[in-house]
Every structure is written in C-alpha cells, then in structure tokens.
Write a structure and sequence with these properties.
The complex is a heterodimer.
Chain A lengths: L8 H10 L30 H12 L7 E2 L12 H7 L2 H5 L10 H18 L3 E2 L6 H11 L7 E5 L4 H14 L2 E5 L8 H7 L4 E8 L9 H10 L3 E6 L17 E5 L15 E5 L12 E5 L5 E5 L6 H4 L12 H38 L5 E2 L8 E5 L4 H10 L2 E2 L2 E3 L6 E5 L6 H16 L1
Parallel strand pairs in A: 1-13, 3-4, 3-5, 5-6, 6-7
Antiparallel strand pairs in A: 2-8, 7-8, 9-10, 11-12, 12-15, 14-15
Helix pairs in contact in A: 3-11, 5-11, 6-7, 11-13, 12-13
Chain B lengths: L44 H12 L22 H7 L2 H4 L11 H18 L3 E3 L5 H18 L7 E5 L5 H8 L3 E5 L9 H7 L4 E7 L11 H10 L3 E5 L19 E3 L20 E3 L1 H4 L6 E4 L6 E4 L16 H37 L4 E2 L9 E4 L1 H7 L3 H10 L6 E2 L8 E4 L7 H20 L1 H6 L11 H6 L6
Parallel strand pairs in B: 2-3, 2-4, 4-5, 5-6
Antiparallel strand pairs in B: 1-7, 6-7, 8-9, 10-11, 11-13, 12-13
Helix pairs in contact in B: 2-10, 4-10, 5-6, 10-13
Classes of the chains: A alpha/beta, B alpha/beta.
Chain lengths: 443, 478
C-alpha cells in the first residue's frame, strides 16, 4: 500500500499521547455515531508506486494516439517547444497556491502579469484577467459582464463553436439572460439576421473569428451592427490566428475571449485548457476572476499583487459577477512561456504555416473528383469539404492508416468534414491524405 | 526584477519550426490582416530559462516547506501522478477522437466516478466542472432543474450560513437563486432555530460545509439535512473540507443530496498557483438525469464506453469537452495508491496533525471555539491585537520571515482577526513542532517588539505592497 504520511507509527502514538488519547479513532468520537462508517469502504487494496504506474499505463494503452492529426474543432495540435514543457513543470509553479501572500509569490504574480500583458498585446485590448476555465466559459462569462438594466439578451452568431453556444446557454439561462442564436448563412454570420435581432434589449453580440467552420468573418461589420444597437461586442478568437489577423480591438470588440489551448497546451482529451478574457478599460472592473496589477512596495520597489478584488466572490459574496475562485493559472503561465519562446516572429511563422498548409490541403482535396469546398470564402487553418462518400467511410479508412481525419459535420451521409491543418502536418502527410481520399472516392 | 519585455531585444529569438514545405499562402482580404506585429518579447531560449529561474526563486510551493493555508488543503502532490498525467496515451489524445479510440480516457472517468462515489456516498458523478466554484454552480443548477421538473417553481431561495466560503453565495446567485444568509452559532455550526425559521416552501436548498469553516464537525448534521428535506429542499455539501472525513464518514450518509469535491484539495492534485483544479459533482440517483453532458456510460450490449449527449433533462454543458481531464487522471492514480486502507488514514492523520498542533498552541493562543477540531482550526488573535496592536496580517507577514507559508487570514468572516491553520496529513511531527515554535516566537515578538512584526516581511524580495494604489490606479499590463 502506498501513502504519503511521513510520521512513523511511534511518532503518531507520541502525538496521541500528547492529546491524552489511546487510539486514533478517539479523534472522531464527537461525530454522531449514526454517520460514522461502520465498515471499510468498498475500494480496491492500495497499490505501490510501481503497481499504480503499471495500472495507469495499462489504461492509457487502451487509447489510440494518432501521429497524424487533421482534426481541430476546438482543440488544436501545435508544436510545443521543449522549453515550454520544462518551465511549466517546475515544482514551485506546480505546487504553489493562489498568490494571496504577495511578498512570498512575486515570481508567480509577475509571471501572470506578463501573461496578461501578452494577451493584451495579441488582442489589442487594455486589460486581461489571469484566466478562466476555458474558451467556452470565457465567452459565457463575457456575456454576463454585459448585462445591464433593460439589456438582457445576447445574440450569438450561429457560426460559432456549438460547444461554446451550449455553455453560453447554460450560464445565461441560469442568469435569466435570453440567448438568441442568429443562424449562420453559408457558413458565416448573417449580418441581416443579427441586425434584425438587435435592439434596445440587446446586451451584447458574440461572434467567433475564425468561426467554427474555419472561415474568416467580417468582424468589423458585425461590430458596427452591435454598437449601432447600443450593445457590447464580444469576439471569440483563436490566439495563433492573431499573429496574422487584425486584432479584435481594431475590429471594435469590447471584450475579446478565446481558448488558449493552442498556446503550448497539449490536447489532453479536452482539459485542462485555458480561457482568456481581455477587455477595453471601460469594462475592466466587470472582468471576473483574478487580476494581477503592478504597484510599489513600502520601499518604493516595483511589485505585483492581486488587485481589484472588490469585484470578487470572497469580498462581494452573492453580489459578485461570477463565483470563479480557482482558475487555470498554470495553463496561463504555460501560454506565457510559449509566447515568449515563439516570440512575434515565431507566432507569425506558426500562423502562416497553418494557413499555407491548410490552403495547400484544401487545393489537394478539392482536386479529387467528387470533392469540393462546402463553403466559399477565406479561411484560416480549418475548412469544410463535401465528398462523394459517407464521412464515416472516409474517416475509417484514414484511421486504418494511422490518421485522425477531420471532424464529421451535418450527419454522416452529407459527406461533409471539417479539416484542420497546422504546422505539425508535413507536405508528405497532406499528400498522403489526398491519396487516401482519392482511393476512397474511387471505390 | 525586470519583466521579460524589458529583456526583449529586436531580432532575438529561437526558431522551433522547419521552413514551410508548401507554398506560402495568406488568402485573405487586406482588411482582415494584422498590420503591426504583437508586442511579444523577443528573447533567446537561455534568456527565457534564466528569467523563469529568477521568477521561481520568488515562488513558494508545497515542495519548499510547510503551507498550512486553512481551507486550501495544501498537501504533498505526489510526483508519480505528474508523470502519469504526462503519458502520451493521456495528454496526446484529441477530445473529439472516435469513442473506440478513447476507451482508456473514458475508463479513467468511469473508474474515478465509481471510486469517488463510494468515498462520498453519492450515486453518480460528473467531472465536467473545472473547479470547486464551477462545481457549486453545477450542483445548484441540478437543484434548480429538480424543482422545476416537479413544477415547484416557488423555490427560489438558497440558505447559506454566514460562515460559508464566498463562492457559495456567489454560485447561488449565478444559478439564479436568492441567497438567504443565516447567522451561525459562535462555533460556526448551524443554529437550528435560525435554520428552521429560514426553511420554508420557497427554499430550494441549503449549502453547507462540514466540517465547517471553523474546523468543527456539526453534531446536528442529520437534523440539519432533515429540516431541509422536511421543508422540501435539497441539501448541498461543499466538499472543501472533505479531507477531514474521507473513509470516516460520507456526505451521502449525512443526508446530502448533491455535492462537489475539490480534487486539488482532498485528492492531492497540485494547485498550480491558482489552478487548474477540478470540481466534480456527485449526486443522488434522483438528480442524475440532470447532470451535465456529455456523460460517460457503458453500452450494455458491447461493453464499450461511450459519451451520452442530447438528453433534454440535462442542465447542459458547463465547459467544452469533459472537464479538466488530466487532473482527474492524477486523482485516480492517488486513490488507487491509497486504496481501502489508505483513504481513512488520510483523514485520521490530517485530524491528528491539526489537533496536535492546536494543543501545542493552546497555551498562548485562543482558538475561535473550544470544541475538538477536525483537520483544521481557527485562532483568533483579537485579544493580542487589542493588547499589542499587532494584527492577523502582521502575524502572517512575520511568519513569512520565519520560512514557512502563513495560515489563511481573516477567514471565516465571523471570527475577528482569524488565522486558519490546516497542516494536512502529509506533514511530519518535526514540521509541526517547528511550526509551533514559530507561532510561539510570533506571540513573544508581538509583546516584546510589535514594531518588528509590523515591518515584516523583511526577508522577501519586496516588502509590503501598496494595494490601495494598485486598485485605484490599476496598471494591469506592461
């Protein structure tokens, strides 16, 4: 049996003696008898470290890890420089608590301050928080930030990630906020539908760029519609794409949110990931969660501290805008290390490679008879194709060849697949993908 | 210390990618293009490594020393669990892979559910909530869905004792409830008369931490949950203090209907400087159909695990995918390591350590209440402050100079000048003895040299901070 109790049994007996107790069970004598467990829990016997390693490796071996991945849809396969993993695994970062005691936590606080600065640099916004649970939760929290007296509806451009819409619905319905999904048109936000839904009761409009289908939206145009109606504008962004795309700030966003997983965080079967949130200065005091600020110590030395805490649950209790306490700090730190390692040139290189390879792959696939792009218009690193055979047939064949194909959309018979191509995919892999699709289509 | 931006030099940086092996393409309108590169730092890899080495010198983790931060359960984070979470067979899995290729991931969730339900006395569990507060939000939505499904729409109130964590009332408000705060007894326990007066046909439920935030097990727990049930409400258990009772008593047997756990407290997963945590929610079978989706289930015919979606009764999705999965992996490895005998040993030793340390301090310090404590205890230094002018904050800052992390201060709110101490089971008698000496030194210094305590900390890279200016004139980025 393993365990992590350092004191020996003699030492424990000595401690009990000090307490005037004969048995360790005496510590629980004040608990009502009716609720004390009468028999041991039905759990397996404890394991040694070697045994638990074997047991968990065995479970892991029941998963299939793909070396070649053409699937995104909210979780993206990017190269993570070795230095990122090493720094993010440092014991002090991993085992520290929320930096309440600032003097003892300057390293962590400065690291988060640097993260906030980088998120602001990427998005063009004025203020970032220290992270929330994930990109979808960030979008939902942003919606709650926009509630105002008389403005209680959120319009969501239907071209966003369906999971994000689900999470927004969960949060908003709890808060009594109305969610209006403006159906997408030809795979993109429908400006007319959004304009006709927007009005005096609209708190905010949410759009995702690039959208769920990989397409680039006319973010500025939708923003103008939101502001025309007196509503706030929330833009969900992919952080890698921001190395080449106009910032949400320039596009009129009041709040920028997104999933930070592409910034050095492994696929991890969906978590932990990183929800980032940044806003214009006018909304800073509505941001949920931890925020690190710069200040001075009593000697006049520059220092960092958790700030604007009057917003938060431990002060405001039921009047707080959000209950978030624990966040995704270590993921935020990981993202900061990733952005530092890549730098502006490396980020741009990754983004341009994603775009170039996706364009190459789209050309290759659509050159196969029977395959076409399902939507028109420019895209970043994802695109939807429609093929002549059921998606499941295509994907099964790819799987046989060790390739995780794209994400099937619109039902199996539609033959529609959402592909994602990143810097991780070589030309050779893309060519092979096209070859296999050609074979499948020819049958 | 310089910011990484101040170490940036134009043109510096490492190249991690090979040259692009397809023609460069940026097929998009000029109007969508970024015109200026983001102001990210330009540093070499060695600059970056040394920058973080310097930052790490200014961070204090459990690996460095004693961390008795009350209500946070800063226990040792076993290294093996980090290694297991890093297995490519877990961290290299795309969340939208076909189900037959992720049977191992689903088995992690299924097994963790089974074991943690046994430990808590719950019937079903979801791992979607990313942290305790999101767990509360989830659990409260289950309560809301339960009443709504019964057409019992008047139940809009959640009762929360004033000794509760701030997340409780905040989560209740997020879930659309009105919060009814009831005063606790002096010992932090529920005042039964107050509870009876508050519980009525508008009560949706009660949120309770047990042991409570003063570290006491509420003797009346069965009566409390009965009062709520008799009024037609449901009882929610905040698992923040579960480390006191695993293998000893179960929330399900105390009468609770729904609860969250903090895997980053009780189940040893690291806090990561504030997260990621994991706040799974357990519930009784009657509430199971409202749990978030996707939910893991086993196909009875094939025996394969799958993800269920689309049940209209479900409260929906709390976040993308299935929760902070790798945190669940670590917690599962931990429970498998402890096993049947090891689980109760956790609580026994957590409670033993707390009582031992309290006993050593009682000669000079005043506990917030006189009952035997569970896994943590609260001291009030209100009298000391009146006599010396030294506050709980001064104590905490002085403790920093003694080389350990201070206890939680000013919580719970019902205790004046509170210091909340939670040693956890993973500390040895030597560490506790040393901590007791440090606390004694604090006490002596408060009377002999109070000014020294007000000037603390003196050993840290920075002294006390100007928090007022930080909030009044926020500077939140470089």
């Amino acid at each position: 049996m393993g365990g992590y109790i350092p004191s020996s049994s003699d030492e424990r007996q000595k401690m009990l003696d000090q307490l005037g107790m004969a048995d360790i069970g005496d510590l629980f004598s004040h608990i009502p008898q009716e609720v004390l467990l009468k028999k041991p829990l039905d759990l397996p016997e404890g394991l040694s470290e070697l045994e638990v390693r074997r047991a968990m490796e065995k479970i892991a071996s029941k998963n299939r890890r793909f070396d070649t991945i053409f699937r995104g849809a909210g979780s993206y396969n990017h190269y993570i420089p070795s230095v990122v993993k090493h720094i993010a695994a440092k014991e002090d970062y991993v085992t520290a608590y929320t930096p309440y005691q600032a003097e003892l936590s300057q390293g962590l606080l400065q690291g988060i301050f640097e993260y906030q600065s980088m998120i602001c640099a990427l998005t063009g916004m004025d203020a970032s928080n220290a992270s929330v649970y994930d990109g979808s939760a960030a979008a939902a929290e942003a919606a709650l930030m926009c509630r105002e007296r008389g403005r209680n509806a959120l319009i969501v451009a239907g071209s966003c990630d369906p999971q994000t819409l689900h999470v927004i619905r969960t949060y908003c319905s709890a808060a009594g906020m109305e969610v209006i999904e403006a159906a997408a048109k030809d795979g993109r936000a429908d400006a007319d539908a959004i304009a006709s839904a927007a009005g005096a009761g609209t708190a905010a409009v949410y759009i995702q760029q690039p959208n769920f289908f990989g397409l680039l939206e006319d973010v500025e145009k939708i923003g103008a519609i939101a502001h025309e109606a007196g509503a706030r504008y929330i833009v969900g962004v992919n952080p890698i794409s921001l190395a080449v795309l106009k910032t949400p700030a320039e596009c009129g966003a009041d709040i920028a949110v997104g999933e930070g997983q592409p910034l050095g965080i492994p696929l991890s079967f969906g978590g932990p990931y990183l929800g980032f949130m940044a806003c214009k200065s006018a909304m800073t005091r509505k941001l949920p969660g931890r925020i690190v600020g710069e200040t001075l110590d009593i000697h006049g030395k520059r220092a960092y501290v958790l700030t604007l805490q009057a917003r938060e649950q431990h002060i405001r209790r039921e009047k707080a805008g959000s209950s978030i306490c624990s966040n995704q700090a270590l993921c935020a730190l990981t993202a900061a290390v990733y952005m530092s390692a890549m730098g502006p040139a490396g980020m741009k290189d990754a983004a341009v490679q994603c775009m170039s390879k996706a364009a190459y792959a789209a050309d290759k696939i659509t050159a196969i008879p029977g395959f076409k792009l399902y939507f028109d218009g420019p895209f970043f690193h994802e695109f939807v194709t429609q093929g002549p055979v059921a998606s499941s047939v295509v994907l099964a064949r790819l799987e046989e060849q060790g390739i995780l194909g794209g994400y099937p959309l619109f039902g199996d018979d539609s033959g529609c697949i959402l592909w994602c191509v990143t810097e991780m995919n070589t030309r050779e892999e893309i060519d092979r993908l096209a070859e296999i699709l050609k074979e499948v289509a020819a049958v | 210390m310089k910011l990484i931006f101040e170490k940036s030099r134009p043109g510096r940086g490492s190249s991690y990618l090979p040259p692009c092996d397809v023609p460069i393409r940026q097929d998009m309108p000029e109007a969508l293009k970024r015109t200026e590169a983001p102001e990210l730092p330009e540093v070499s890899e060695i600059d970056l490594v040394r920058h973080h080495a310097a930052l790490l010198d200014r961070v204090y983790g459990v690996n460095r020393g004693f961390y008795p931060l009350g209500s946070c359960t800063m226990k040792y984070n076993p290294r093996i669990n980090e290694e297991i979470a890093g297995l490519p067979g877990f961290c290299g899995i795309h969340p939208l892979q076909p189900e037959h290729t992720v049977q191992g991931c689903l088995e992690v969730l299924e097994t963790a559910e089974k074991l943690l339900c046994e430990i808590t006395g719950m019937d079903r569990m979801t791992f979607q909530p990313a942290a305790g507060a999101q767990g509360e939000f989830t659990g409260l939505l289950l309560i809301r869905a339960y009443h709504q499904a019964r057409g019992d729409v008047r139940r809009t109130k959640i009762i929360v004792p004033d000794s509760a964590h701030g997340t409780n009332p905040a989560s209740a408000a997020m879930a659309g409830f009105t919060v009814v705060s009831i005063p606790s007894g002096a010992d932090g326990c529920v005042d039964l008369d107050q509870l009876r007066a508050a519980a009525d046909d508008e009560t949706a439920g009660l949120m309770l931490t047990n042991p409570n935030t003063l570290g006491l097990f509420d003797r009346n727990i069965l009566e409390i949950t009965k009062i709520i049930h008799d009024a037609g409400g449901l009882a929610y258990y905040d698992g923040a203090n579960l480390n006191a009772v695993i293998g000893i008593a179960r929330p399900g047997d105390m009468g609770f209907d729904v609860m969250h756990l903090n895997l980053h407290k009780t189940f040893s997963t690291p806090h990561g400087g504030g997260g990621p945590g994991s706040g799974p929610v357990g519930c009784r079978e009657t509430l199971a159909k409202y749990l978030p989706e996707p939910a893991v289930e086993r196909d009875e015919n094939s025996g394969a695990l799958r993800l269920r979606k689309g049940d209209p009764a479900s409260i929906g999705q709390m976040k993308s995918f299935y929760g902070n999965f790798l945190v669940v992996v670590r917690a599962l490895a931990y429970v498998l390591t402890l096993g049947r005998e090891g689980v109760p040993e956790v609580s026994r030793n957590a409670v033993l350590n707390a009582n031992y340390l309290l006993k050593k301090l009682e000669s000079v310090y005043k506990p917030a209440c006189s009952e035997p404590c569970m896994h943590e205890f609260v001291l009030t230094i209100d009298d000391i402050k009146k006599e010396t002018g030294v506050s709980a904050l001064d104590f905490a800052k002085f403790i920093i100079d003694q080389g350990i992390h201070p206890p939680t201060m000013y919580f719970p709110l019902i205790v004046h000048e509170a210091l909340m101490v939670e040693p956890t089971e993973t500390e040895s008698i030597d560490t506790l003895d040393e901590a007791a000496e440090i606390f004694m030194k604090c006490y002596m210094t408060a009377y002999e040299d109070p000014e020294a305590m007000k000037k603390a900390p003196a050993t840290t890279p920075v002294g006390r901070l100007d928090e007022v200016s930080a909030a009044r004139f926020p500077k939140l980025k470089f």
